[in-house]
Amino acid sequence: MTMLWNHQDQAHQTDAPPGPSMRYLAMLASVLLLMLTGVVMVLSASTPASIGQDGDAFSVFGRHATYVTVGIFVLLFTVGRDYRSWRRIAPLLLAAAFLGLVLVLLFGRTTGGSRRWLDLGLFGLQPSEITKLALVVSLASFLDQRRYFLERIDRVTVPVAACLAVLCVLILQQPDLGTAAIIGSIALGMMWAAGVPFTHLALLSAPGLISGLLLAFAQPYRRGRILGFLSATQNSEGAGWQVNQSLLSLANGGFRGTGLSAGHAQWGWVPAAHTDFVFAVVGEQLGLVGALAVLILLGTIILTGFRTAQIAPDVFGSLLAAGISVWFLLQVFVNLGGVLRLLPITGITLPFISYGGTSLIVNAAAAGLLLNIARQSR
Questions:
Q1: For the chain, which residues make up each domain, given as ranges?
Q2: Model pTM greater than 0.85?
Q3: Counting beta carbons within 10 angstroms of the beta carbon of residue 299, is it exposed (0 to 12), middle (13 to 18) or buried (19 or more)?
């Protein structure tokens, strides 16, 4: 793997930077189409809830449209900025993420039993989402710097484990087990891509798995989610209500869907219809055709991201592309797993489609980084 990267470095030094490729254009088109789909689906899924909560049918949609607009500007900024410049600010990003996680525990707004947002007046900031981007950039830089010491557990695995422990403990205090698990999994994926020995990865992941299982059964609401996953049909009026309604909405959509705003999911039958369970609304209103189109667009971003990691101009770009691709893959897998009753519900959003402020903007920034690497790759 290192020999491949060295060959790529040499090619990057001798060849002129290539223009936009089909891979780059396919990824860019997929991101923009998903954002557009998200705007339409959030409008359709949130209208009844907006009327009930705010007396304004477009209150949630207006906020989401603002987030999408900001996200597009952030995407254009990161696409136009050389990805190598991000490694200079990697320590600052990680420090800012750590500070944000501390501040949210001290001064954060509590919603639904979780303290995850910093109220900044005009908008709320979710530090755990920023932590994902900070971790990917910082870990790519760190693994690049120590790529000749990957077999030294004291030089690579132990420092990464210490950093992850601090970040995950802070996130678990919110509490947010799903995000902590995704952050740990992103780090493992990047270390595997860098070539860290499997035995080191096993030593790093074993404590996380054991802690995750213990924490999953420690809180009543987490036990309820697991119960809803394991016995949804027997608890259709209790713990399995949300996921059962999600599956009914998907079945109701059929092949071509019920049409925009014509389904029943948005009328309170599926809780969190415009956030965590927006895919149920997509499947009901757009049918199997629309759901498959969304999956194809998401798959295009992820697959072209992994391909970009293989042919990136340098080691840092390769690890950065791999980390972002693993990040998107995990979020899609966990979100759809909850909607389709393949995994317990975690509260993880669907990238580029679910309603959200910080998550949508941070995903746009990460996509812009990935696009910049793809544009500079042969």
A1: 2-375
A2: yes
A3: middle
